[in-house]
Amino acid sequence: MTANSERKRWEWMPTVGVGPLRFGMSPTDVAVALQVLAPQEQVGGPYGQENFANGVKVFYDEGRLACVSFDAIVGPQAFLAGWALAGRDPEQAHQFLLDHASEHGNCLLYTPDDSLALTDLGLLLRTQRVGDVLLSRPLFAIGEWFESEYYRDRLPLEGVPVVHVWNEPS
What we know:
With 170 residues, the protein is an alpha+beta fold. The protein has helices at residues 27-33, 90-104, 143-147, 149-152, and strands spanning 12-13, 17-18, 21-22, 41-43, 48-51, 56-61, 64-70, 79-80, 83-84, 108-110, 116-118, 123-130, 133-141.
């Protein structure tokens, strides 16, 4: 595990981008901004997804950067009101977001996998299993993805989603 003091700290600018990445960039612009020749891996699926060795995953909509996510352990760190978003206990992270939304009037959204988003800031906190524990993993996305029901229900899951099955009593 990487200690928080060793992580790169990226400035997050809600609805604009995070670190050197700006929403709307092309894949070539993203590679240049991250100072790499190419992503470590390109992933198929509904989004053009590229995974980079530094714990950063990016997602494209029609060839333009629309979402950035950080690995809970090795990715960069970003902050909301001085509070680190990656690698936190998910329950504490959810409570922090609820408190922040209450204090600042942010719009809240629970996604189908029970992740919590502050939609007006373009922030979604997902979980990532690391050994026997779950840790928070932030996603930063363009506003259109939170405004559209299609995208809102299909925000990148990156892994096996938790499926809730409710059985009616017989």
